[in-house]
């Protein structure tokens, strides 16, 4: 039986960035916590998996940033009033000189929720995919994914990568466990097709939504500026720190409870 990597199947080996190879078979595309439960089957593994769920901020993501950090990164600056999407009105603080101002108190709350969910996915061995269609931020997004051991797609999005994966590649393809959209619009200011495809496939999504974006299909929308380089650098740094912190905590818990690394199925 052949063994595939995420890069070979989802990106066809030509599009996207391979950060690390996670091998799996078409018969059993299982990695991470499911392997722990199936092969170890002891109370220590269960404790490692369930302990973070009993704490509202197990990974202390609220300590990673403050409202002042968001303000200094210009996260509060939205687009002109004429570009405003009606579903973004609840996230606005006001409008000054025809420019929408985002309510940073709501941004803090939503960003903490998004980071906390991301940490839980990383802790449980999930596959996280960073997506951005903005050409000027492509290198930043790819470097962020590489530095935290995850995956990135910063180029043209081919329709059907999620919804038609079995036909395009082979049955048993494992889709991402979480998708982080650092920009929900493409280069012509239309909603990224991956958001719609992820919603169809019930894949959780985190997305930075500016005042001209539609947040309705995102699981965890984060209202904020998605055009300024300093703001994008802040988002990338926070997600990278969160993922690395969760993975480090997982390794610490495994050592503490005497549980080895998760086995990987192979043929």
From TrEMBL:
One of its GO terms (cellular component) is mitochondrial small ribosomal subunit. Its main location: mitochondrion. It is found in: Mitochondrion. GO terms for molecular function: structural constituent of ribosome. Keywords: Mitochondrion, Ribonucleoprotein, Ribosomal protein. InterPro entries: Ribosomal_uS2, Ribosomal_uS2_bac/mit/plastid, Ribosomal_uS2_CS, Ribosomal_uS2_flav_dom_sf. The keyword Ribonucleoprotein applies. Pfam families: Ribosomal_S2 (PF00318). One of its GO terms (biological process) is translation. Required for mitoribosome formation and stability, and mitochondrial translation. Belongs to the universal ribosomal protein uS2 family. This is Small ribosomal subunit protein uS2m. It comes from Takifugu rubripes. The lineage of its organism: Eukaryota, Metazoa, Chordata, Craniata, Vertebrata.
């Amino acid at each position: 039986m052949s063994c595939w990597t995420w890069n070979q199947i989802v990106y066809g080996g030509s599009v996207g960035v391979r950060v690390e190879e996670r091998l799996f078979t078409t018969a059993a595309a299982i990695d991470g916590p499911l392997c722990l439960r199936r092969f170890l089957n002891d109370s220590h593994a269960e404790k490692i998996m369930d302990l973070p769920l009993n704490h509202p901020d197990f990974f202390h993501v609220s300590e990673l940033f403050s409202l002042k950090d968001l303000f200094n990164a210009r996260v509060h600056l939205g687009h002109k009033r004429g570009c405003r999407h009606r579903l973004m009105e609840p996230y606005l603080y006001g409008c000054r000189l025809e420019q929408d101002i985002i309510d940073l108190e709501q941004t803090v709350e939503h960003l903490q929720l998004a980071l906390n969910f991301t940490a839980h996915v990383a802790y449980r061995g999930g596959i996280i995919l960073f997506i951005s269609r903005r050409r000027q931020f492509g290198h930043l997004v790819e470097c962020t994914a590489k530095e935290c051991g995850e995956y990135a797609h910063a180029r043209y999005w081919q329709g059907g990568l999620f919804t038609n994966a079995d036909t395009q590649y082979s049955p048993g393809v494992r889709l991402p466990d979480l998708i982080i959209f650092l920009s929900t619009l493409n280069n012509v200011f239309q909603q990224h097709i991956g958001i719609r495809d992820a919603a169809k496939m019930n894949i959780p999504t985190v997305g930075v939504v500016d005042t001209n974006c539609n947040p309705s299909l995102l699981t965890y929308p984060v209202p904020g500026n998605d055009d300024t380089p300093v703001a994008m650098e802040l988002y990338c740094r926070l997600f990278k720190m969160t993922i690395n912190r969760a993975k480090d905590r997982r390794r610490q818990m495994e050592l503490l409870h005497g549980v080895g690394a998760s086995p990987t199925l192979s043929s």
